[in-house]
Design brief:
Low-confidence stretches: none
Number of strands: 0
Order of helices and strands: HHHHHHH
Number of helices: 7
Radius of gyration: 27 Å
Distance between the termini: 45 Å
Mean pLDDT: 87
Shape: elongated
Structural class: mainly alpha
Largest sheet: none
Strand content: under 5%
Number of domains: 2
Helix content: over 70%
């Protein structure tokens, strides 16, 4: 089926190049779409999750280990810089997080509930709110 699909795509490219207004290009395109759906349709495979974590994910890590190492080192470096800045400059955290958030966190710590800001709603709602906030923050910066 894969060989037929490749041949059909070659024929489709030829038909679109030389017979773009013709119905044969549309017909070949519809045949290619049917084969594509058969090849790439998502069907349930037993043990798919196990295979992903046992084989595919380790292969991805092996393939991109330099990228992962670089990003880990980059992330760690900036965490160290942020911790050093927070330890030596009292205004750094307030500048990054905002006065309102820092004051609210200090009130929660004083009341014995340091994670009180996250306990106000269920996990999914909090996840959506955090994602929305991050996307909104990113769109304001672009």
């Amino acid at each position: 089926m894969a060989e037929r699909f490749t041949t059909l795509l070659d024929d489709l490219a030829y038909a679109k190049t030389f017979y773009s207004g013709n119905s044969s290009a549309r017909y070949i395109n519809s045949m290619a779409a049917v084969i594509y759906r058969r090849i790439y349709s998502s069907r349930a495979e037993p043990g798919r999750i196990r295979r992903f974590f046992a084989y595919e994910m380790p292969l991805l890590f092996a393939k991109y280990h330099r990228v992962f190492l670089f990003t880990f080192c980059y992330f760690t470096l900036f965490c160290i810089i942020a911790a050093f800045s927070a330890a030596h400059d009292e205004t750094f955290v307030r500048g990054v997080m905002g006065d309102e958030y820092v004051n609210m966190t200090e009130r929660n710590i004083a009341s014995g509930d340091p994670f009180g800001v996250y306990g106000s709603s269920n996990e999914w709602e909090m996840w959506v709110r955090i994602a929305f906030n991050n996307i909104r923050w990113l769109s304001m910066r672009l």
